[in-house]
Amino acid sequence: MTHKDLKEYKILILEDNPADIDLYKRRLTRQDAAKFDLTTAGTIEEAKKCTESDQFDCFVIDYRLPDGEGLDFVHHLTQKFEDSATKPAILMITGQGNEEIAVAAMKAGVHDYLTKRSISDGFFVRPILNAIQRAELASQIHYYQNELERSNQELSDFTHTASHDLKAPLRRIISYCEMLEEDAGPKLSDDEKSMLSRMTLNASRMQNLINGLLSYSLIQSEKEEPEVTDLQKMVEDIRDEFLDQIEENDAKVIISALPTQQVYPMRVRQLFTNLISNALKYRGDETPLIEIDCNIDAEKPVFRIKDNGLGIEENFHKDIFKDFKRLHNQEEIEGTGLGLAICRKIVEKHNGEIWLESEPGKGTIFFFTLGMEG
Fold this sequence. Notes:
Number of domains: 3
Helix content: 40-55%
Low-confidence stretches: 324-336
Radius of gyration: 31 Å
Distance between the termini: 60 Å
Oligomer: single chain
Largest sheet: 5 strands, parallel
Strand content: 15-25%
Strand order of the largest sheet: 2-1-3-6-7
Structural class: alpha/beta
Number of helices: 11
CATH superfamily of the largest domain: Histidine kinase-like ATPase, C-terminal domain
């Protein structure tokens, strides 16, 4: 490859020592790995002016400068390019190696840290090219992350809008079915009554599905502030809301010493509600027993909801958290297949994990962590 075919990079060298500048220029011009268009500045203020009038692929910054420390300029650069789609590479140079300076530089956003001794020994071009490649890769990752977030938000917004717009006409369909059954019931044949009953049932199932989709989309789109929340009181309140079902099933729900923790309260209420509802819905032959507790001695508090219900075969333990995944058909047990997917999304929103232990006929234990700490 000829010199004119080499890729060219614009470099700003922030250094006040003429001898060091000459050294850097010699190292960067007497090589055949890349072409470098070099600009020099002796002070932070001069370097700031250069960034206003030109764009650079890489900044080589001395740690000590006449009008401040090199880290001051690094902070300026990170703020300047915070919202930029492309971010430059940054190298910090010091007279002597210092671990504390190196750590502070990396935390500030520097891609590499070199001593002037290593540059004198010829170790300069490759670190610059590596830093530029890392900066380019980071910019690409940042771009794709933004595109993914935008795409997910658009999908969430569409799901929310579609679900919301479908609720009103569906309510009217259910109302018309109920009115027809009330007004014309005696005149209908058994087959017509059966068809009307199936129509009402399927409309109700569709309504539950739409409500599930709406809840699912709100996890991402709804803006809720985290709050320090008494989870013991929250779950006791949820238990009271299930009182009719608990009495109907002669169930027992035991809640033991749940912590106070910073969470998104509406979402966590939905999380516990879904898991308690499942424990009641998928009961076995025994009288339902649901135990809710938390291991606060773990690195992160681990919540546990245990039941003595139907249980789940091991080959479904991972799939059960996928969207629309159901293990029973509608005729056996009503459901949308979104309940545990919603639980997973809520736990992920809290930077947590959810998993289960279960055997058919021996009940299920759901475990989850909530990454936020009170």
